[in-house]
């Protein structure tokens, strides 16, 4: 089974990966943002911890979820 980053790597970097009402994000930019998010989570030393984030649906949630899956934080989305 391919990892998330391996799946992204198969796409041309300048193609649109995510489009919202406010922005278009290429695969290159998406990968950079996900890596930054994963590095930030790693810097918090959260391994072996359960972490919860409450975010609206959208780009910030997707970045955090994808970044957490890369650095293997036990990430669970919570609903209000």
How does this model look, in words?
There is one protein chain. This protein is 45% helix and 19% strand. By secondary structure, it is of the alpha+beta class. The protein has one domain: 3-Layer(aba) Sandwich (Rossmann fold). A two-stranded antiparallel ribbon has the order 1-2. It is globular. The mean pLDDT is 79. This is AMP-binding protein. Residues 7-68 form the AMP-dependent synthetase/ligase domain. Pfam families: AMP-binding (PF00501).
Provide a compact summary of the structure.
By secondary structure, this protein is α+β, with helices and mostly antiparallel strands. The protein contains 3 helices and 4 strands; from the N terminus they run αββαβαβ.
Low-confidence stretches: none
Distance between termini? Answer: 33 Å
Query: Helix count, per DSSP?
Result: 3
SSE series: HEEHEHE
How is the main sheet built?
2 strands, antiparallel
Overall SS class: alpha+beta
CATH class: Alpha Beta
Helix content: 40-55%
């Amino acid at each position: 089974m391919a990892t998330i980053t391996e799946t992204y790597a198969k796409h041309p970097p300048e193609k649109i990966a995510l489009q919202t009402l406010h922005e278009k994000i290429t695969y290159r930019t998406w990968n950079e943002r996900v890596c930054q998010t994963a590095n930030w989570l790693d810097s918090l030393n959260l391994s072996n911890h359960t972490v919860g984030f409450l975010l609206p649906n959208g780009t910030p949630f997707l970045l955090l979820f994808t970044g957490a899956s890369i650095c293997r934080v036990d990430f669970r989305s919570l609903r209000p």
